Amino acid sequence: MLNPSSRLKGEKDWRKYETARELAKKIEQIRENYTRDFKSTEKRVQQRAVAMYFIDKVAILQLSIPYVESTSFPTSDLISTASPQSGQ
C-alpha cells in the first residue's frame, strides 16, 4: 500500500482519472457496440458483450451509492438500542 501523499500514488491516480475522462467521451459508442454484440453469432462475442454490460451497470450502481466509512457507522448506538433494558 502506498502512502496517500507519495508521488507515485499521485501519478497513478492522475493517469486513472485521465483514462476515465477519455472513456467518458466514448461511452455511448462503447454501449452501442456491446448492445449490438448481444446478437452476434459468435458465442465469445456475446459473452464479452454481457460482461461489458455488467461491468458498465455495476460501475454506475457503485457511483450512485454514497461511500460510508466503516468508522462512521454508529455501532455503539445500535448496541445500546438493541440490548434489553433492565426493569422493563
Tell me what portion of residues adopts beta-strand conformation: under 5%
CATH architecture heading of the domain at 7-65: Alpha-Beta Complex
* Broad shape: elongated
Question: Count the helices. How many?
Answer: 3
Kindly name the structural category.
Answer: mainly alpha
How many extended strands?
0
Termini Cα gap: 50 Å
Helix content: 55-70%
CATH superfamily of the domain at 7-65: Topoisomerase I, Chain A, domain 3
Average predicted confidence as pLDDT = 76
Query: Could you name the CATH class of the domain at 7-65?
Result: Alpha Beta
Low-confidence stretches: 70-88
Main sheet makeup: none
Could you spell the SSE succession in H and E letters? Answer: HHH
CATH topology of the domain at 7-65: Topoisomerase I, Chain A, domain 3
Radius of gyration: 22 Å
